[in-house]
Design brief:
binds guanosine-5'-triphosphate; alpha+beta
Length: 603
């Protein structure tokens, strides 16, 4: 039975522990890519990547490997690399029967190692523990092996040691993949059923989907149905990733490949969806859910003349990422733009970085906010809103507090792994962020794992940076969704010379409202350019002024032209000026220059 010679697996690792390097080495070792490319991250740089414009998704590939006179088909299935994609990681993993758990021998177990281990463990996958970078003098092999034992009950003799960079131990690793990971459980006689675990956008072909075939078979010309969208799609092309798309005639149960099926965009090729053939519906894979954005921010072109270019760039990026939510937005100061929803903070950062790097876009991003669930009070009000609970994504959309009965905010469970010496500072940071310590485990002589429950709102701004700063870069962090919790939220608004500047409004926890209001006033004072007259900066909560700063006027020396001593003339000029300024102040609506926003809103 040919399925006996198929292995589907992923590499899971903390960031920078060597996943891409190992993937390259496996491709090289099995002859998929030429060895000349040694030490360059080939997959990352391949044409696929340029076409897809995506780094995080370039590593799904089919390899063929001879072992004991038998050829095996090894499907290496890529998992997205960062913490906001737990759901997508778990979908990719459900296309596999085993994983290589890769740990940097100089760094040891880190936060994402833990998160990824449990995703694999809970999915009942075979786990091959591997230490990487053993060529480095700083590797602490014994110590890390012990950590793996303490944390995951992994037996020391099970741990393989490799250098992905130098290609040491790769043969043994391939042997372990074949021996320890079972072939996919599947049935070619049953009706066709496949898991869609990745998709990307191709200019000419529309959405291309990577699928793992569970049962049955699929050939060109077949018509398939998406269990989620219920749309039908004729299969135009199918094949293997080798690592570039390589056409074949059919895909069979147990195999992993790509399909082109007239799907217009990645919203029609959602990760986690189940595909079946038109006349033979199947029970979908369990646990599918559409992506749910948790961090929202306004994005505006720094120069309105760039609006259309930016629009094209954003739409292109979104074609490849169905998890981003896009709504148009506009603001008096910032002009036309969009409000984008991301899965998390890193997701947002990666997106912005790509906009800037790949499309040379010059953008302004407003402070990120999280979705609050706001319960409405009173029959009349409920009628007006058409519901008793609304989602508030934008501070300016918060209803009048008088009609709010309860506010719920999104929470996360954060995992920190750190040398013990930073324990106290990290605990203080988390408390500052309204978090509480839930659990603490010693994972080695001088390293600990801490679990905190934190409001998402508190980590969207500067949590990572602060964590890295106080731990000299040693602490690693990962977080996952932890539902909603009742909260006290206050809306703070800002006035410049009695005119509200809506773009500055923010929602903050009530306990921090005054403090944050003060800090923002100071920021405004230092960033809004001076005028000829004094500008009052005020922060208000429910109409009450809670903080105030003055922006001093520029001194325009009206007497500069009067040389010498005509004192009465001087006095008169000064008096005139004072009166004029008083008038100006009364009517003065300050326009806040965009640069000021950039300075205030950027981190
Ligand atoms: P992300 O894609 O950012 O998650 O990183 P990754 O896990 O794919 O790590 P990557 O393969 O990019 O490796 C990170 C760094 O470690 C690179 O500079 C590699 O050259 C280096 N590296 C990877 N494997 C080894 C190894 O076995 N030995 C040594 N000395 N360096 C290695």
């Amino acid at each position: 039975n040919s399925v006996d010679f198929i292995r589907n697996f992923s590499i899971i690792a903390h960031i920078d522990h060597g996943k891409s390097t190992l993937a390259d080495r496996l491709l090289e070792f099995t002859g998929v890519i030429p060895e000349s490319a040694k030490n360059a991250q080939v997959l990352d740089k391949l044409q696929v990547e340029r076409e897809r414009g995506i780094t995080v998704k370039a590593q799904t590939a089919t390899l063929f490997h001879m072992y004991k006179d038998q050829e095996y088909m090894l499907n290496l299935i890529d998992t997205p690399g960062h913490v906001d994609f737990h759901y997508e990681v778990s979908r990719s993993l459900s296309a596999t029967q085993g994983v290589i758990l890769l740990v940097d021998a100089t760094q040891g177990v880190q936060a994402q190692t833990v998160a990824n281990f449990y995703l694999a463990f809970e999915a009942n996958l075979a786990i091959i523990p591997v230490l990487n970078k053993i060529d480095l003098k700083t590797s602490k092999t014994e110590q890390v092996i012990e950590e793996l034992n303490t944390m995951f009950d992994i037996e020391p003799e099970e741990v393989l040691q490799i250098s992905a960079k130098l290609g040491i131990g790769i043969d043994k690793l391939l042997e372990a993949v074949i021996q320890k990971i079972p072939p996919p459980p599947c049935d070619v006689e049953k009706p066709f059923k496949a898991l869609l675990f990745d998709s990307w956008f191709d200019k000419y072909q529309g959405a291309v989907a990577n699928i793992a075939v569970k049962d049955g078979s699929l050939k060109k010309g077949d018509e398939i149905v998406s269990a989620y969208t219920q749309k039908r799609h004729p299969v135009m092309e199918l094949g293997f990733m080798h690592p570039l798309p390589t056409k074949t005639n059919a895909l069979y149960a147990g195999q992993v490949g790509y399909i082109v099926a007239n799907m217009r965009n990645t919203k029609e090729a959602l990760i986690g969806d189940t595909l079946y053939k038109v006349k033979s519906p199947v029970e979908p894979f369990p646990g599918f859910r559409a992506p749910k954005p948790m961090v929202f921010a306004g994005v505006f072109p720094a120069d309105q003349g760039e609006y259309f270019n930016l629009k094209v760039a954003i739409e292109r990026l979104i074609l490849n990422d169905s998890s981003i939510e896009l709504n148009v937005d506009s603001s008096d100061v910032l002009g036309q733009g969009w409000r984008l929803g991301f899965l998390g903070i890193l997701h947002m950062e990666v997106f912005n970085q790509r906009l800037e790097q790949e499309y040379d876009a010059n953008i302004i991003i407003t402070s990120p906010s999280v979705p609050y669930r706001v319960k409405i009070f009173g029959e009349k009000n409920i009628k007006m809103y058409g519901t008793d609970e609304i989602m508030v994504l934008n501070p300016s959309k918060l209803p009048n507090p008088a009609i709010i009965s309860e506010v719920l905010e999104p929470m996360v469970q954060g995992t920190v792994i750190t040398p013990s010496e930073y324990r106290k500072d990290i605990t203080t940071l988390c408390q500052d962020k309204r978090g509480h310590l839930e659990e603490e485990i010693h994972i080695g002589e001088d390293r600990i794992l801490m679990k905190f429950i934190l409001p998402l709102n508190e980590i969207v701004l500067d949590f990572f940076d602060k964590l890295k700063a106080i731990s000299s870069g040693y602490a690693s962090f990962d977080y996952e969704d932890h539902g909603y919790q009742q909260s006290q939220v206050t809306k703070v608004t800002f006035n410049l010379n009695d005119h509200e500047v809506e773009e500055l409004s923010m929602l903050v926890h009530t306990s921090k409202a005054v403090q944050e209001a003060k800090e923002m006033c100071v920021k405004l004072r230092d960033n809004v350019p001076r005028q000829l007259f004094l500008i009052a900066v005020q922060a208000r909560i429910g109409g009450q002024v809670v903080a105030r700063e003055n922006i001093k006027p520029m001194k325009k020396d009206v007497t500069a032209k009067c040389y010498g001593g005509d004192i009465t003339r001087r006095k008169k000029l000064l008096k005139n000026q004072a009166e004029k300024l008083k008038k100006m102040r009364k009517i003065g609506k300050i326009t806040v220059p965009k640069e000021t926003f950039i300075n205030i809103l950027k981190r």
